[in-house]
Design brief:
Layout: H1 2-21, H2 29-59, E1 64-65, E2 68-69, H3 73-102, H4 104-124, H5 128-156, H6 163-195
Antiparallel strand pairs: 1-2
Length: about 200
Amino acid sequence: FDDRKEKKMNCMARFVDIIMAYFRPFTHWDFFWCWVTRFLMQFGIQGFQNNMLFYLTDCVSSFNLFGFDLQLAKTAFIVFFVLMFLISLPFALVSGWLSDKIGRKPLVIFSSLVITFCCLVITFVQNIYAIMSCALLLGAGIGIYFAVDLALVMDYLPDPKEKGKDTGIFNLAQAFGQIVASVIVGALIGGGNYLS
């Protein structure tokens, strides 16, 4: 009977140790702040993306871009994100190399400011040219941010023996940011439509 009780206690202690191993990286402040900032950045980007089609539909009256009539908000939405994606690729490649030369923090701070600026500008403009210009800048900022932020996190992983686990924990910041933003922005959009 005592052996079974001891095995059960050992099993419980092992289970608690495994669970606590996933919270241990958060005791390192650098890793904690990298996680929080990635969560907030992903929350903001996801919230922005979830709202963009509604914004284009409700606030932009003309979708004529350089002589091409995009006609629908859905088409402008697709063009916006294709532009953003295409411009992010070269910036991601160059910024990774550049971060090795000048450091990671300046590029993360710069790209965060660019992303924030673009989201704020888009909030107040209703001109398709300004919105598509912001798509280009936003793509550059996102390309720089996601390339360099991951490199920055690799510098701050708490335990060299558990890099895989800790990187997986860091990746949860991105997933949680997307999930939480989708729920909150969806509720705000749905609630706003219900109230109006």
